Amino acid sequence: MKRYNVAVVGVGAVGEEMLRVLRQRNFPINELRVFARSAREIIVDNQKYSVRKIKPEGFQGVDIALFAGTEGEKGAAVTYAPAAVKRGALVIDNGADFRLKKGVPLVVPEVNPQDAKRHKGIIANPNCSTIQLVAACAPIYKAVGIKRMVVSTYQAASGAGRAAVDELIRQSREFLANGAVGEARALPARIAFNVFPQIGSFGEAGYTTEEWKTVRETQKILHDKKIKITSTTARVPVVTGHSQAVYLETARKISAAKARELLRKAKGIKVVDRAKGKGGRTYPQAIDAAGRDEVLVGRLRQDPFVKNGLWLWVAADNLRKGAALNAVQIAELVCAISS
Asked: Between the CA of residue 60 and those of 64, 65, 84, what are the distances in Å?
């Protein structure tokens, strides 16, 4: 088996999860390099890693570079991805900088693996909420088409980074101790015992940047700009695990039973939607999704007032399938294609 020199760039929550997933999936690594803004040592699951200060020359000899860090002009991908590609590395970027760029594939391996073949040195990892959305909807889209999506997301604090998780825990303790919380610093509003409808900054048509990611990334992955997608994204007081209420208007009618059957056969999906007791039913929860590879789907039901309307409830681990695992799966896919 061929083995690869792999770099992980960034040691925040996603970077640590990338290291964890690489080890758990026994990715064929010859040499592992871990880069960040400063050199230090970190421990992930009792495993010690030496972190190097990131420099362009550090990518010499690297085959695959997994970028986990921040986005934008100060982000590692914008600064160092071209240097890595120049030195022969395939860059798989978890940030938003390259997702909508022409010529850069945006890949969920269970949905559009063929797009990975078209890379020119960079493959983009979709947004965490987009990954679970398209994983759940693609089998239905391929079977009967989708004309319209209405998506409401309930996103965990960890989607905003480690500081947001710390803020959730701190505010929760403060509220339980004295009924009040301190100032919000990592998030735009109080997160403890609260829900607020803002992820990202407000922009075009009053939608947030996160809401536009849902629209444009989904259309790109499915290669269909005709799908009408609208989204509301909310932050909820959950540590890990994004949940979504997804309403589909399909091009052709499909029953909830048939959709359930399609999803049970789909790769990377776990259907949690069975009768339970007297009138009860199982359904996905964020706490069930945390730590799991699969995207959980349940609450499948037809709209009694719209002929082709179908509801889904979707949950997934935003750090794992929503980021680190999907990136490593892309690397595995490219390795399989090139072997």
From this structure: 11, 11, 7
Per the listing, tokens 């935003």 go with 318
Task: Give dist(CA 78, CA 98) in Å, integer.
Answer: 9
| Nearest by Cα to 106 from 263, 28, 262, 218 | 218
pLDDT in tens, 224-280: 999 999 999 999 999 999 999 999 999 999 999 999 999 999 999 999 999 998 889
DSSP state of 109: T
pLDDT in tens, 110-129: 999 999 999 999 999 999 99
- Residue range(s) occupied by CATH 3.40.50.720 in the chain: 4-126+322-338
Q: The whole model's pTM is what? A: 0.96
CA dihedral (108, 22, 4, 121) positive or negative:
positive
CATH superfamily of 4-126+322-338: NAD(P)-binding Rossmann-like Domain (3.40.50.720)
Q: Can you spell out the DSSP letters for 41-72?
A: EEEETTEEEEEEEP-GGGGTT-SEEEE-S--S
Q: Is 292 helix (H, G, I), strand (E, B) or coil?
A: coil
Determine the angle formed by the axes of helices 209-222 and 128-144, rounding to 10 degrees: 40
Q: How far from the centroid of its chain's Cα atoms is residue 229's Cα?
A: 18
Cα separation, 34 vs 19, in Å, equals 9
Backbone angles phi, psi at 280, to 5 degrees: -90, 175
Q: Which two tokens stand for residue 222?
A: 């499915």
Instruction: Give the pLDDT score at 69.
Output: 72
Query: In b/e form, how buried is each residue of 8-26, taking b as 16+ CB within 10 angstroms?
Result: bbbbebbbbbbbbbbeeee
The CATH class given to the 130-318 domain equals alpha beta
**Active-site amino acid positions:** 128, 242
Start and end residues for every CATH 3.30.360.10 domain found in the chain: 130-318
* pLDDT tens-place string over residues 176-219: 999 999 899 999 999 999 999 999 999 999 999 999 999 999 99
